[in-house]
Write a structure and sequence with these properties.
homodimer, mainly alpha, Arc Repressor Mutant, subunit A, 8 helices, disordered N terminus, DNA-binding
DNA sequence: TGAAATATGTCAATAACACTGACATAAACC
DNA sequence: GGTTTATGTCAGTGTTATTGACATATTTCA
């Protein structure tokens, strides 16, 4: 990420670097989380994307493979309900995965209309590779002290976080969720995101 | 969501309903978070989608409008870097938003090559509507006691969560991040997600 | 048993969102 | 004045999704 913040921003963002993100009173406490969720998810799906590209698969294939791997015997209907797509969309990617021997279908025993889905050895292997990179990111986000996730709120002030109380520290989960999502972002880009969000915080002050 | 879990699952999922999600020792502590992130994000973008559809806009329009609204004066290059798309992709949606008077471009003052982006009144209004529904979800996720977000870890056991310690309660942020994401899921579907994930937990036990 | 509902599969057309590659213009930089 | 930078645009393509219609096998139930 190469946001030329120092050039384009008003120019006084120097010490904000490592400061915690602070919300001005004009905003809801969850506003930062909305953007952090976007950035976290962006990087979260970026890891597997690189692996999938080598196999000629996309995110849709990943989602199917993931859920079939983790919930063996899943039916088509269940999968459709999880993924929230149409059966036509599912069929396209499922066909790929079956033809290339990553997933197999078995006729249901109690209800022979159902097609129970299972991963083959190949499928399990790929699913494992994919979940590994994602687990690594999540685990690091939960564990790395530098990422500040350990500064979990000590349960003081459990009374909601709805009002615009503008505090920057622990209030009932805000901070830990915020830190978790921030830590999910690619390390080299975390500073850029902090810088960007600090820019908004300042302009609204 | 209408996963017919009771029908299709082995049939013994009765008391799991309100239980906290428990990870078997064979898995990484972040494994649940991977799926929760998927479900949370799915519902998170679902709210604005419904509004956007009424305007004939999609998610791409939303993202552009959101960032321009919150960071007025953003340049094209900055936006491209935030969204991680090509300028061709950006231009398609940006053109829509400009033509329909949601966003305006102003030539940069210090660098006249730049096009600084700003929301019009219309743009701010729509962006406000969109952020409102998302803030509502996030705020509720942070505040609602029934969602269990208040059971934030009391900073006991700060020593990472990397090992497969299989505990279900507070260890350095795991629970609060998990509860936050779970609370982000559409309430009526939370039970279904819990049921699904419990299904895996059981089978691996 | 036979009609209705269910689970799945498939054909066809379309849309949203992304990509690559190539090329053009204006302004800044040196 | 030549190079780089910021932006815009044309053309073609790919992935993922959609709607609508229809087909098949199986289960359910009256």
């Amino acid at each position: 990420m190469t946001l030329p913040a120092t050039e384009n921003a008003p120019a006084e963002n120097t010490a904000v670097e490592n400061a915690a993100i602070e919300s001005p009173a004009t905003e809801s406490p969850g506003d930062d989380l909305i953007e952090l969720l976007f950035f976290a998810y962006r990087d979260f799906v970026g890891d597997p994307d690189r692996i999938l590209a080598q196999y000629g698969f996309g995110r849709a294939h990943h989602r199917v493979l993931h859920f079939v791997d983790r919930y063996p015997g899943l039916t088509i209907a269940e999968l459709l309900d999880i993924l929230r797509i149409t059966k036509q969309s599912l069929n396209r990617v499922l066909k790929d995965l079956i033809e290339q021997d990553y997933i197999v279908q078995k006729t249901g025993t109690s209800d022979r209309r159902q097609r129970l889905l299972f991963c083959t050895e190949r499928g399990t292997a790929l699913a494992g590779d994919l979940i590994r990179v994602q687990t690594r990111r999540v685990t690091r986000a939960l564990a790395d002290p530098e990422d500040g996730i350990l500064e979990v709120g000590t349960s003081e002030d459990k009374s909601s976080a709805s009002g615009a109380s503008s505090g920057k520290s622990s209030e009932g989960g805000t901070v830990s969720a915020q830190n978790f999502l921030l830590a999910m972002i690619e390390p080299e880009e975390r500073a850029t995101v902090r810088r960007l969000m600090a820019r908004r915080a300042r302009s609204a002050a």
